[in-house]
Structures are given as C-alpha cells and as structure tokens.
Amino acid sequence: MDIKKYRQRSRSDRPAPPTIKSYYSTSTSIKITWEYNTYPNAPVTGFILHHRVDGTPWQETHVAGERTMYTLHDLLCGTKYYCFLVATNSAGRGNSSEIISTKTAGSCKLVLNKFR
C-alpha cells in the first residue's frame, strides 16, 4: 500500500508564494511577470492576481497555472495600483507574494460636458 497516496494534506502541501520578477506600466495597463516553485505532490494549478486602487476592494483575476505573465488592461491613467499574486493547487491557496505598487503612465484629464 502506498502511504503517500493516502496521507492527509497539510498546510505544507499548499504552494509557496510566487516571486514577482518584473512589472511594466503603460497609461492603461500593467504587465506583471513572476516565477514559482513546482511541487511533484501538489503542482500549481493556477494563480490569483489581486489588484486595487487605494480605498477600493481587491479585484481578483484568475490566471492558468502554466502562465508566468499577465497584463491587466483597461486601467485608469495616472493612477497608483497595488498588486499581489497567490498560487493555488489541489490543497488550496498558498501565501501571497509581496505587494507591489506601480502607477500607470499619464495624467487623467477631466472632460467637461459641452452641453451643460
């Protein structure tokens, strides 16, 4: 009988935090790349990319497990965003990466309604 097959999952089976390697911002997007450890007994099946602006709730974007890059689109220009990653597998969510902050390029201009 294979004992490993029947052992109970523990916190150590959850994936280690991904390491954010780089990030790049444009006026409306943020591209993030990362690395992660692989585990033969509980491989990474996906990632959850969390992002937000100050004073707003965290938004979650689910990313497939084989990916090591993701670009957030349709963001506000000239705005500071906070992001972090969590790896997932069959045992659940792992711990989070460090939180990064980056500002999208440009400055938002107020467009006045010409029909006031």
From TrEMBL:
It holds the Pfam family fn3. Residues 14-107 form the Fibronectin type-III domain. InterPro entries: FN3_dom, FN3_sf, Ig-like_fold. Residues 1-14 have a biased composition (Basic and acidic residues). Residues 1-20 are annotated as: Disordered. PROSITE patterns: FN3. SMART domains: FN3. This is Down syndrome cell adhesion molecule-like protein Dscam2.
